[in-house]
Prior knowledge:
Elements: E1 2-7, E2 12-19, E3 22-30, H1 32-35, H2 43-65, E4 72-80, H3 84-101, E5 105-109, H4 110-116, E6 131-136, E7 141-148, E8 151-157, H5 163-173, H6 180-189, H7 214-231, H8 236-265, E9 269-273, H9 280-293, E10 296-298, H10 310-324
Parallel strand pairs: 1-4, 4-5, 6-9, 9-10
Antiparallel strand pairs: 1-2, 2-3, 6-7, 7-8
Helix pairs in contact: 2-3, 4-10, 5-6, 5-7, 5-8, 6-8, 8-9
Amino acid sequence: MFILAFETSCDDTSIAIFRDDALVAMRTRSQIREHNVTCGVVPEVAARLHANVIFSVLEEVLREADVQLKDIYIIACTESPGLMPSLLVGMTLAKTLSKTLDIPYVPIDHIQAHMFANYIGREESDVHFPAVCLTVSGGHNEIYLWKSMFDREKIGETLDDSAGEAFDKVAKMMDLGYPGGAIIGQYASEYMGSFRGIFPEVLLDKTQYDFSFSGLKSAVKREIDKRKWEKWELTMDDKKEIAFEFEQTVVNILTYKLFLAATKQNIHSVMIAGGVSANDHLRETVERQAKKHGYHFLAPISKIYSGDNAAMVGMLAYFLTKKSHPN
């Protein structure tokens, strides 16, 4: 059973082909260079760039998989959440092909697909339930109680910005470029000092699993303004220290909330998913804490599957199809 999967929720045009639960081929076209000009994604620009390349990406992935459209059994596409102009590009092509080829179309939830990225390259039995899963990227920031494969409950979310959005905005404040996550991580890794805790760790109470990053973002802006007032401009050491302090503070907040939920929900596993799950420091910290407390830990096996990608869409589509047609 061949599955053709589309992901165009933000600024990556990604298409994948699965044979059952095995990834056969995937092609992803990034828009980082174009959005670096504005240090962020402009929805209308992103949609136009998707439309410009989606047919060539489709041709490439079919050629790599040595598959023709007539061989496809199911088409799946991300429908929400995401940037609507971008989503419509993928949905329009996916639904048109579904109608033309007279084959089933499977709508995919973007957040759920990120969670199912933890299945890619693993056996189904490798994912242990019940679990708590932190889904965190530029557009979302939640904690889910994942009771079984298709039974999940959102128990925490951001009240304002997501962690990934905060990374992008802090990088923009220091003129470091886009996307902010990878750049902040690089600058932070080069800082040789110790953590001083110069930024606030917001909402670290014992009664809720929600997040808030707007106050942290404002504190970073004040620190940058203060240093510019004193020195006229940020030095390289300033940028590295601010990146380090900011990243560590975000990791502290995310980790604290994740393990607060794990402790109170009586679970077996902790998982992370979404673009920020590619952050090395976050992965290492969560894995270390999971081992310390005796939890099974999972993150996508490759950073490729942490960010937006069609492989996670295809994987979820496979399990949804298996659920509805078990034979």
